[in-house]
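User: I'm putting together notes for a lab meeting next week and I want to include a structural view of one of the chains we've been expressing. I don't have a solved structure, so I'd like a prediction I can at least talk through. The sequence is below, exactly as it appears in our construct file.
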Amino acid sequence: MNDYVEIKRLHGTDTQLYQLVAPLVMNPAVLKQNNNYPFRTSDRFEWLIAQSDERILGFIPIEHKASSNVINNYYIANRDADLLSLLIQEAIRVFPAQTLTAVAFRDDEEVFLRAGFTTEKRWTLYVKMKKEPAYAK
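Assistant: Thanks for the context. Below is the predicted structure for the 137-residue chain, given as C-alpha cells.
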C-alpha cells in the first residue's frame, strides 16, 4: 500500500462517485474478483473510496438498512489487507453508533475479526460478520 491514501466519502448517487469507480466496476478483472456479481448503488448507499494520487485503490459501499449498515461487494486492489483494514476502520469511525454488518470474502475474515467483527454465518465463498456499535445512540 502507498504511504499516503486519501479516503473519500461519497453519497451513492453523487456524480463524482460514478466518475471515480466506473472504470473499476466495469473492468472484467475487478468483476471476476467480485465473483462476477455486479456492483450497485442507490440513495441508500454511502461509499468509502481509497485513492492515492489519481489512482483508486479500493472502495467499500455501505448500504443503510433499517437494522444496520451493510458492507457488501467491496473491492481492494491486489487484495491488500492493510488497505481493507484502513477502509473498515473508516467505516467504523463514520458510523460509530450503528451496527455494521459485512458480507465479506472468506479470505478477508481475519481482517474483519481484527477490526472487532464477529462471525455469524459462513457460506462457500463468503462470511457474514457483525460489529455492534461502540456506544448507544
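A couple of points you could mention at the meeting. Helices lie at 15-25, 28-33, 81-94, 109-114. The mean pLDDT is 93.

User: Perfect, that's what I needed.
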